[in-house]
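Deliverable D5.2: sample structural annotation.
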Amino acid sequence: MQGIGKDHPHAMGHPHGKGYPQGMGIGIDYDVNPFIVIWEVTRACQLKCVHCRADAQLTPDPRELTHEEGINLIDQIYEMDNPMLVFTGGDCMMREDLFELADYAVKKGMRVSMTPSATANVTKERMRRAKEVGLSRWGFSLDAPTAEIHDHFRGVPGSFDLTLEKIKYLNELNMPLQINTVISRYNYDHLEEMAKLVGELGAVMWYIFLLVPTGRGQMVACITPAQHEKVFRWLYQLSKTAPYDIKTTAAQHYRRVVLQEKARDHLIEKGDIRYEDSITTDFASMHDGLKRAPKSVNDGNGFAFVSHIGDVMPSGLLPIVGGNIRDTPLAEIYRESKVFKDLRQPDNYKGKCGTCEYNKICGGSRSRTYAVTGDYLESEPFCVYIPQAMRKKAKQSV
């Protein structure tokens, strides 16, 4: 699977390590602690997704973290002010001790969720056990409103029908459903139907992933920068009426679009249509309205990813290793490794991202930037926005 990424951290609150609800990430210093940690518990998976970040394999890697190492990792994550923990893969259901690990984390007071693949491994009994353990939400990937497109994307015939069957089981158990969709050229023309289907399936959240060309994901499958912008503005309008919440991953510039649209709505209501130059980060901080962390989470900035063998990276989509938990504590890697520290300095980003008035709210997808340019500090290559400073400079030079 593409993997859960930066912006989905904002999706769900969880118990705070200091005894009060962390909720929206209030009070977290991202230089010290992450808002969310993703643990790739295994790379084994029976699907053959054309976009797979992990380039998953059919059988577990013998180098995977052991049960004891997993328990130690959970303890380390908890000690970092109890961030949200997500089990991912591969297919996390192919990890034999998955529920034991989840049970241990939940009993510590952590909020845990998982993103299993919709395969025969997902039985109603396992769903029931997940609910009994106390998992907060179950996420299934559904990438199109038709079997033809979805099955092509997931690389296995019958995946679409099997996913709908598993969702039906989940609804019977009254367990909250999150639907994850990777937007690419394969499904770009079918988003209206997809949005309708997400509602019909009773999802509480639609998680939108914008394809990053890494792993099996290819640049040719990505939508264009202009299409990104169109999708974001469509999502903003959809969010006003959809019966589910909408969150995005590898789409930091959606935050900028939401703030622009909210500013537009606010000023048009006041009879002033000259909205664009009135948008400021102060307005943004006051009127975010995204039901997520008020501080923007990005690769390495409020977010950490631990691989199946213990490598710690800013994101599963940004495969630069800051260290390995078998050698170095997670907190030390997150706080002190060069790549993590670089990514927490938006003013040091290059090109327009470095001068953009939204760089602390957005910052662009560092994963996509790295995948396309080879430099994680370069400008987001799929953003069409021209920062105010650059526009003013252009006017002055005329």
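Annotation notes: The first helix runs from residue 67 to 79. The CA atoms of residues 236 and 261 lie 8 Å apart.
The annotation will be released with the project's public dataset once the embargo ends.
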